[in-house]
Amino acid sequence: MAVITNIGDLKKIYKRRVPKMFYDYCESGSWTEQTFRENVSDFDQIRLRQRVAVDMSGRSTKSQLIGQDVSMPVALAPVGMTGMQHADGEIKAARAAAKFGVPFTLSTMSICSIEDVAENTDKPFWFQLYVMNDEDYLHRLIQRAKDAKCSALVITLDLQILGQRHKDLKNGLSAPPKLTPSTIANLATKWAWGLEMLGTKRRQFGNIVGHVKGISDASSLMSWTAEQFDPRLDWDKIKKIKDMWGGPVILKGILDPEDAKMALNVGADAIVVSNHGGRQLDGAISSIRALDPILDAVGDKIEVHLDSGVRSGQDVLKAVSMGAKGTWIGRAFIYGLGAMGEAGVTKSLEVIHREMDISMALCGRRRIDELGRDILQIPEGFSGRWQS
What we know:
By secondary structure, the protein is α/β, with parallel strands linked by helices. The chain has one domain: Aldolase class I (TIM Barrel). It is 44% helix and 11% strand. Strands 4-11-10-9-8-7-6-5 form an eight-stranded parallel β-sheet. The protein has a two-stranded antiparallel sheet with strand order 1-12. Strands 2-3 form a two-stranded antiparallel ribbon. Helix 7 links the parallel strand 6 and strand 7. The mean pLDDT is 94.
């Protein structure tokens, strides 16, 4: 068996094991994929400052996110169709996260339902909400998350309209996959994945099927979903949803300081600096470049988290040292899940934790609360010198 020492090792196994349709769904962005690429490459421009002859014993990566104790400042981001990457994927990822001591966020567009995950895990998880046109469904969905004792509601703000993702359109992305000649040919090479999927009953969008009238098959489900994202979502509606929820609320998809201020005004507990992993507005700046201006605008008044582009423990270290309270990983844990199931998610978290811990020590720091910009070397003008 291959020795796994980094997230890239998991990605190689993942690519071999999972059908092309779902690999492409994870490993792609919208339009030219410029933002998708720069989310990763912009992290590489930030350098770490090595310090020596410092006591490196007794280190800890423990922290808190929205008042919740975590083993490191990392959360598992909501990823649609996680249960198509590996059978019962959401349940397995949630279990791995709980055992490791980091939050798991269940997507509205998950394969395993809210109830599935709650029944098969023993710790609260976060629930990510896409705001839909069907208000009755929306209200019931929020109530289901309450009934499942979800500990935070994550409202995604940057998907009122679906970005164009060329690979998904060309692959005819669906759950379960449509059996076209090319799909069948690809699935025939992924027999281990197929056998596991045959062993589960969870192969459709569990939060939607059985909860919406008129949804009887994959085609009606996909057409309903495409029409349901609410293009009228505004700050008034966000405030109403927050009040309806009545618990901790995290607003995800903030890239602009003015939007960060609006999130603060509606009383959010945290925001996630995110461009949806480069899957929405291509040509937008990377999340790590967007972080500084947002911290300048609201950083001491609200928790600021970051996702999009985090692929290593060094990325986590850089974001937290710049001032983010925490980071979220999506693709990094999906690679592990698709490669090895629950054990793969655990392995991805172990890899990130080890990289962060060792790098933090070599920068002369022993605890998260000791991290700051003084361990970084950030290029001049990193956040952009744009014409006004």
